[in-house]
Amino acid sequence: MHTSSLVSLALLATSAVAAPARQHPLMHEKSPYRKDYKDPYDHKIDAVGDGLQPLPIGNGDDRGTDMMGPRNPARERQNPDLVRPPTTDHGTMKNMRWSFADSHIRIEENGWTRQTTVRELPTSRDLAGVNMRLDEGVIRELHWHKEAEWAYVLEGSVRITALDPDGGSFIDDLEKGDLWYFPSGHPHSLQGLAPHGTEFLLVFDSGSFSEDSTFILSDWLAHTPKSVLSENFRLPPEVFNALPEKEKYIFQGSIPGPIKEETPKNFKKSKLNFTHKMLAQEPVNATGGRVRITDSTNFPISKTVAAGHLDIDPGAMREMHWHPNADEWSFFIRGRARVTIFAAEGNARTFDYMAGDVGIVPRNMGHFIENLSDDEPLEVLEIFRADKFQDFSLFQWMGETPQRLVRDHLFQQDPELGEKFWKAVEGAKSDVIKSPQSGEEEFSDEL
Ligand SMILES: *[C@@H]1O[C@H](CO)[C@@H](O)[C@H](O)[C@H]1NC(C)=O
Ligand SMILES: *[C@@H]1O[C@H](CO)[C@@H](O)[C@H](O)[C@H]1NC(C)=O
Ligand SMILES: *[C@@H]1O[C@H](CO)[C@@H](O)[C@H](O)[C@H]1NC(C)=O
């Protein structure tokens, strides 16, 4: 609407009061979302942390204007780089972000579960994720499924049981930062332990997995003639009148004692180890954080899922890289992040992530992860449907390529800068998370 029509509307109003001078949002002094702001280097902006309201206003050029229609300011703050993409973004790309906050929750007795699968996030093709909470003593009942299950304990403690194909049995208690892995079809159960039960992330090695369609003990028995149960267990059929009429799924159980006391008498210990202490692993120290990698090399049973756990320090960045062997399925545990995904043919799009978000980076697409937050470190799991964790570092690639070749590609126009670049990458050592630069030059705030 033009100002002139606003004026005539105001004149029509019966009790015409002088309208307060409207501060033009594009001119708000502190905000980088205004027409006279220019950042030629597209630095990250933490809209959530700094309480900024992103607007689709070009960075130092004439593009864009404010918003008039219906909007969701909270979501826009969470996605500043979708509202005003860096000037380097280009082309279209499938959606690569989903928040568990947008997933339907299945509420059960003293527990709940929600999932992010190919149905919620169509790019989640290789893996599906489930976030589950079980209070103390609450059981995710004995079940199995065709997908392998990998899990990371987010909080609390949990007891798992499993059986291997040789009849070997496995019981273990896990805490925050521990993993388990159940190969396809292996029967298992989970139970929250004292004092507050547990919450964990489950990852299945197929994007189309559904937590609602697993093979559940009580469901099977409820759908088997009692005469057959009688034959199978060599008991009179009346015994089975006591069985639940349908699946229990998640339910309050009795509080378990120590493993020693719970173990059946003729317990045959499995030769397999279904669990691993990922956070307890000695990290690889990068200049800007710590990395722990767990795959079939150090967790042999985990043949279809490999993972990296990253702690990204203040201002630090997971360096530019790509994964040659699988799509990345990341889960953000803490903090906020900016990620630009480079998809070849000039296409690149930037997504922002925060705790509880799932991110996808298709195999081979170049990307980085920047810490956006001013008050929280960034903690991320990078998960792959693969037996080994593999990545290629851009930095290392440049440093291990003949100098002449690198310079001819990037700095033919300015040999002096080429020399500077070469010095920076020469003899590159792997540094997966880079610490912030000291004395980073300030960028111009003026046109
Ligand atoms: C499985 O391996 C882990 C090492 O990650 C070890 O701490 C644990 O005791 C093992 N569990 C069993 C039951 O063998
Ligand atoms: C990494 O840093 C921690 C803390 O400074 C140290 O205890 C650990 O030994 C280092 N690990 C390696 C592999 O150098
Ligand atoms: C994250 O990065 C910002 C710089 O963008 C830095 O100021 C902040 O301290 C970092 N947050 C933490 C505590 O990791």
Automatic annotation (TrEMBL):
Mn(2+) 2 binds at residues 321, 323, 328, 367. Mn(2+) 1 binds at residues 143, 145, 149, 188. PANTHER family: OXALATE-BINDING PROTEIN, SLL1358 PROTEIN. InterPro entries: Bicupin_oxalate_deCO2ase/Oxase, Cupin_1, GPI/OXD, RmlC-like_jellyroll, RmlC_Cupin_sf. The active site is at residue 382. One of its GO terms (molecular function) is metal ion binding. Residues 1-18 form the signal peptide. It comes from the Eukaryota. Its cofactor is Mn(2+). It holds the Pfam family Cupin_1. The lineage of its organism: Eukaryota, Fungi, Dikarya, Ascomycota, Pezizomycotina. It comes from Saxophila tyrrhenica. Keywords: Manganese, Metal-binding, Signal. Residues 103-241, 276-418 form the Cupin type-1 domain. NCBIfam families: bicupin_oxalic. Binds 2 manganese ions per subunit. Residues 47-94 are annotated as: Disordered. This is Cupin type-1 domain-containing protein. GO terms for biological process: oxalate metabolic process.
